[in-house]
UniProtKB/TrEMBL annotation:
Residues 3-235 form the ABC transporter domain. It comes from the Bacteria. This is Iron complex transport system ATP-binding protein. Coiled coil: none annotated. Gene3D superfamilies: P-loop containing nucleotide triphosphate hydrolases. Keywords: ATP-binding, Nucleotide-binding, Transport. One of its GO terms (molecular function) is ATP binding. PANTHER family: ABC TRANSPORTER ATP-BINDING PROTEIN (PTHR42794:SF2), HEMIN IMPORT ATP-BINDING PROTEIN HMUV (PTHR42794).
Length: 253
């Protein structure tokens, strides 16, 4: 499924935070969004996953204008792993993952064996099976994040929006989460804090600064020392490992 956001504008009070942003993800494409703190990444993603209403611009899932869908309809097409905040809900892990099935059900539908099987699979995939009966609020930040991913997997959507999903995760689980998402081959738009993680997993990356897209391309094409200096004001050197994977080294201390 194509995700297309066109000319998105959004202000808070007198401050224009998004100044006409275009971003898209094609079917099966893993798209990254990078940029400094406060550049508008979360605001843009919130407009896409309908927590915020843009002041101007449109968002399409394929040809379908998102604002014409019910929240329930869009939840069948788009899953979300939001930036981690302290979640306060006191449900068990498996109940939270089961919530991912809700958009697929009619109001009085019972959860059935197929739903439970999907929940079980989603927990397995994220390595959280052993936590199924635990109270969500007793989990660490990283464990909670993996449960929220499991819920998004249980939702079985063609699109996935991720806002810094690997914050709070150790390197093992950062890579595990990114691999899980990558293997799903969904249309993904993910704000990613770590440039090396972005370079490893993204098919294409957008850079945003001051509410404007300042660059777009494959990791190799976009993430040059000049571009990183322009966006982040730091010096870097790009190297390639023996597998040909690029790595960004931060230099000039
Ligand atoms: P990022 O995710 O790139 O770090 P955000 O999109 O969260 O950036 O924030 C962009 C800017 O918008 C920041 O300056 C932030 O303070 C401001 N902002 C975000 N949400 C609100 C809000 N609800 N009210 C006022 N300002 C906000
Ligand atoms: Mg953010």
């Amino acid at each position: 499924m194509n995700i297309t956001a066109q000319n998105i504008r959004r202000s808070f009070g007198a401050h224009e935070i998004l100044k006409g942003v275009d971003i898209s993800s094609r079917p099966g494409e893993f798209v990254g969004l990078i940029g400094p703190n406060g550049s508008g990444k979360s605001t843009l993603l919130k407009c896409i996953y309908r927590i915020l209403k843009p002041d101007a611009g449109q968002i399409f899932l394929d040809q379908c204008d998102l604002s014409r869908l019910t929240v329930r309809e869009s939840a069948r097409k788009m899953g979300v792993v939001a930036q981690h905040n302290q979640y306060n809900f006191d449900f068990t892990v498996k109940d939270i993952v089961l919530m991912g099935r809700a958009p697929h059900k009619k109001p009085l539908d019972r959860d059935n064996a197929a739903d439970y099987a999907i929940v079980r699979k989603s927990l397995e995939k994220t390595g959280m099976s052993a936590f199924a009966d635990r109270s969500f609020s007793t989990l660490s930040g990283g464990e909670q994040q993996r449960v929220i991913l499991a819920r998004a997997l249980a939702q079985q959507t063609p699109c996935l929006i991720l806002d810094e999903p690997t914050n709070h995760l150790d390197i093992t689980h950062q890579i595990q989460l990114m691999k899980i998402v990558k293997e799903l081959k969904l249309s993904v738009i993910a704000a990613i804090h770590d440039l090396n993680i972005a370079a490893m997993f993204c098919d294409r990356i957008y850079g945003i600064k001051g509410g404007k897209i300042v660059g777009e391309g494959t990791p190799e094409n976009l993430l040059t020392p000049e571009f990183i200096r322009e966006v982040y004001g730091v010096e870097t050197e790009i190297v390639h490992d023996r597998h040909g994977q690029m790595h960004i080294l931060f230099t000039g201390l």
